[in-house]
Amino acid sequence: MRKIAYLFLPFLYLIILLFQIDQSMLEDLGRHLKMGEAIMECLCVPQTNLFSYTNPNFPVINHEWLTQVILFFFYKNFGLQSLLILKMIIIATAFAVVYFLAKQKSSWYWLTIVSVLCVLIFSSRFRVRPEMFSYLFISLFLLVLFLYKKSKEKLLLLLPVIEIFWVNMHIYFILGIMIYGSFLVQEYITTKKTDKLLLMVGAALLLSTLINPQFLNGALLPFTFSSNYGLSVEENMSVFDFGKYASSFIYTLSLQVVTFEILVGVFLITLPLLLKKTSLAANLNALTSALLGLRFVRSLSLFGLFGLQALAEKFTLLEEALRRHTDRYLVNTIKAIILAITLTVSFVYINGLYQNKVLHFGYQTYTEGATDFINHNNLNGPIFNNYHIGNYLIYGLYPREKIFIDARPEMYPSSFLKEYERMLVDQDYFNEQVKKYHINLIVFGVQLEDPLTIRPFMLRQIQSKEWVPIFADGNVTVLIKNEKKNQEMIERLGMKI
Asked: N or C: which end of the chain has fewer CB within 10 A?
């Protein structure tokens, strides 16, 4: 009965957190769906910036094309909500596999404690995004290597096949090489010899990363993806800096960051003490994911997977060591305190989700009102939009209208991104660019953006009399150019200020 309770708690917590309102439509999902549709129509992978009228010929590397096709297939045949179910199945499966592997050398008690805390961290990226497939592939890599140790040698041949899918679905494909590399190091230190099969599979893994539409450029993308960035990206910031810039992060990330930092601290402190008694590969994987999480906020979730096995093993061994050197009452007291802290943190997190109405099966809405308004009234661009809502506008307006910019800095020349930033603060320069691109509509998200930049910009346009507001719903404001060709629209739709 106790084992059932231990098993029930982390998976119940996982299911609850999977019912957080999904923010992926605020991010990249709309663009992924439109790209998947475009790929299916042309049976090709576009190599240029398909959705922007400002930089339509800028070369791009689409490293997620297969994911986009899969997402579009489910969307077209089963609806947008089906992607939420797909996400839940993939994430639950990935966690279940890692949980099973962690149980091999962990006690039920510590596995439960660590699982709950790792689920809390893992949930920072519970969204319909390409990386959810990376979580699945991570778990499959770990499972295949575990089964190999159980005399299932032929299963190793699955790894290059998985890697071929992975390299065409998400940039985390490099983690497959990392996982296998950690395993090779462990095997060599343990056996003091080199197995030919292991080396052949390793070589096949490296070669499989080249099987993508961009060949070597695609294989090297994890090391070059930010080389062209002209703007800082919040999710790529360090956990020590994100609070300074996180205009669009939900409040819950603060608790996840603190929990992550504490667990990473515990892991690093205990690493040299228990390294010889715990899985070297698990420790190397956890260390890599910890470093990635410290460097990139978006990578916090990886420690929720990789840290589970390493930390559950360590806490189990620490309890055994304490029992040998201290009395039972002290050990049980420490366990009770840690349990109380874990339950408190978990309750605070869920209560916060409830109070902020985040527990919901669905997507967070944002620009639907504006895009419906533009389509219904047959408004024409070119559109000047702000950075963060570009992906959402692609979903609502493409192919009828293309956008000025979207939240993919690698898809635009860095010089252009600097021009965009200048347009927001320099009115004369903005007017010049309006003439250059013949801009007819301004479509700006105002709720989730930085008010210190967006609000002054919008006020300047309205006060200039060059632009007339025709739509505002608290999320997005739409302005139309005040000129003769738009007079009928202005008279019919114009808002009094």
From this structure: N
